Amino acid sequence: MISIKKVSKWYGEFHVLKQCTTEVSRGEVVVVCGPSGSGKSTLIKCVNGLEIFQEGEILVDGISVGDRKTNLSKLRSRVGMVFQHFELFPHLKVIQNLTIAQCKVLGRGNQEATEKALQLLEMVDLSGHAQKFPSQLSGGQQQRVAIARALAMDPIAMLFDEPTSALDPEMIKEVLDVMVKLAQEGMTMMVVTHEMGFAREVAHRVIFMDHGEIVEDRPKTDFFGSPGTDRAQQFLSKILSHSA
Amino acid sequence: MYEFDWSSIPGALPYLWQGMVRTLQITAVAIVVGIVLGTLIALLRLSKNSILSNVAAFYVNGFRSIPLVMVLLWFYLLVPQFISSLIGRPSIDIRLLSAFVAFALFEASYYAEIIRAGIQSVSRGQVSAGFALGMTSGQTMLLIVLPQAFRRMIPLLLTQAIILFQDTSLVYVIGLTEFFGVAYNTGNRDGTLVEMLLFAGAVYFFISFGASMLVRTLQGKLAS
C-alpha cells in the first residue's frame, strides 16, 4: 500500500532523512517512534507529499508521490492525515469541517456528505457536537473530530503525526481508543507516536528512527522483546520508565 | 465676538445630503473594488513567481509613495482620454469616473498590504490540513485561508475605510463636489463659511467616530 524506497531529504545542508526504506501493507498498522528531531514526522509528511524529498521514491497504492506528473491533490484526497495540533478549520462548524472536502474535493452532495459526517461523529462519540465550533471543544474532542474529518474522505490509508502529543494526559486515552478501534477494523495506518502502549496493543510493526535513519524496522514483539540496537534500547527504557 | 449664524444650514440640508450621497458612492466603490483588487495583488505578492510578486510589490510601493491628491489629478487627466479612445464619449460624469478609478486603485494598494498580513497570519498548518484533504492550492486559499484572514482583518479594513471616507473630500481638486465641496460652496455663497465648515466637520466627526466605536466593539468580539 505504502512503499518507501531509499528516500533522502535535505534542508539545505542538513540531512533530515537518510536512505529510508520501508513498507506498509494493506491493513497493517505501523508505529514510527524515535527521539525528537529524528525525522519521523518529516518521513510521514513525505508520504502524502506535504514535504518534498530529493532522492528515492514513495509509492502510495502504486502511484509515485515524488513524480511531477502525479496529481498530488487527488492522491492526498485518498490518504487521511491527522496532525499534532488538530488543524481543524476554526471558521467552520464541526459538521462543516467534515463536509467541506467531501463536497469540494469529492463532489459529494450536501446531504450525502452530511449523513456521512454524522455517522462518523457518532463513531468518534461526538454526536451532540456537530453544530459547535472547534474552539468550543476540548483538545481530545478536537482531535477526534480531526480523525473523523480524515475518515470522511474514505481514505485507503491513514497517517497520524503525533496525534496525542499536544493533548493533556487525561485526553490521550479517548483519542487512542478511536485509533485502536480503527486499527481493529483493518485500516492501514502509519502512526508517529511515543505511545508505546498503543504500539503494543495494535501495531504490527514498529519502526525506530534516529538522526534521519530507520534504525530498526521489526515486528512489534521482536522490537519490545529484544531491541536489536543500543539506541533503540536506550530510547525504549527512557520512554517506558517515564510512562510507568 | 463672532456671531454664529446657523440659519442657512436647514435650507442647505438637501444639497448637503446629495453631497453625502456622492461621498458614500466614492467610498463604497473604493472599498469594494479596493478589497477585490487588493486581494488579488496580495495573492500575487505572495506568489512564488518572482516576476508576479515584484510587479505586485511595485504596484503597492508605487501607490503608497505618491500623495493621493496627485493620484486624483493624474487620473483626472488620464482617464477621460483613455475612456474616449476606448468607447467614445461616456455618458457618466468624467470627474466622478476618474475619482472612482483613482480611489479604487489607490485604496487597493493599502488593502493589499492589510490582506497580505492577514493571509500570512493564518498558520501553515491550516494550509497543510487543506492540502491533506485533497484541496488544491486555490481551494485551500479560497475556502480555508482567506475566510480566516478576512475575519482577523475586519477591524483594520474598516479603519482603512474610515480614513478613505475622510479622504474623499480631496476630490475638490478635480472639481467634483461631494459633501465637503457642497458645504464649502454653499457656505461661500451665503457668507456662512465658518458655520458650514464647522457643521461639515461635525458630521465627519460623528460618522467617523461612530464607525471607530463600531470597530472597537468588533475587535472585542473577534478577540474573544
Describe the structure.
The complex is a heterodimer of chains A (244) and B (224). Chain A contains nine helices and ten strands. By secondary structure, chain A is an alpha/beta fold. In chain A, the strands form two sheets. Chain A has a six-stranded mixed β-sheet with strand order 6-7-8-3-9-10, sandwiched between helices. A four-stranded antiparallel β-sheet of chain A has the order 2-1-4-5, covered by helices on one side. Chain A is globular, with a radius of gyration of 18 Å. Chain A starts with a strand and ends with a helix. Chain B has 224 residues and is an all-alpha fold. Helices cover 83% and strands 0% of the residues of chain B. Chain B is built from eight helices and no strands. Chain B is globular and about 70 Å long. The mean pLDDT of chain B is 90. At the A-B interface, helix 2, strand 6 and helix 3 of A face helix 5 and helix 6 of B.
Helix percent of chain B reads over 70%
Largest sheet of chain A: 6 strands, mixed
Given as residue ranges, the uncertain stretches of chain A (5+ residues, pLDDT < 50) are none
Mean pLDDT figure of chain B: 90
Number of helices of chain A: 9
Biggest pleated-sheet summary of chain B: none
Can you give me a brief rundown of this structure?
The complex is a heterodimer of chains A (244) and B (224). Chain A is of the alpha/beta class and 244 residues long. Chain A is built from 9 helices and 10 strands.
Write the layout of secondary structure elements.
The complex is a heterodimer of chains A (244) and B (224).
Chain A: E1 2-11, E2 14-24, E3 29-33, H1 40-47, E4 55-60, E5 63-64, H2 72-77, E6 79-82, H3 94-104, H4 110-123, H5 139-151, E7 157-161, H6 169-184, E8 189-192, H7 196-202, E9 205-210, E10 213-219, H8 220-225, H9 230-243
Chain B: H1 8-46, H2 50-64, H3 68-87, H4 94-121, H5 124-132, H6 137-167, H7 179-190, H8 193-223
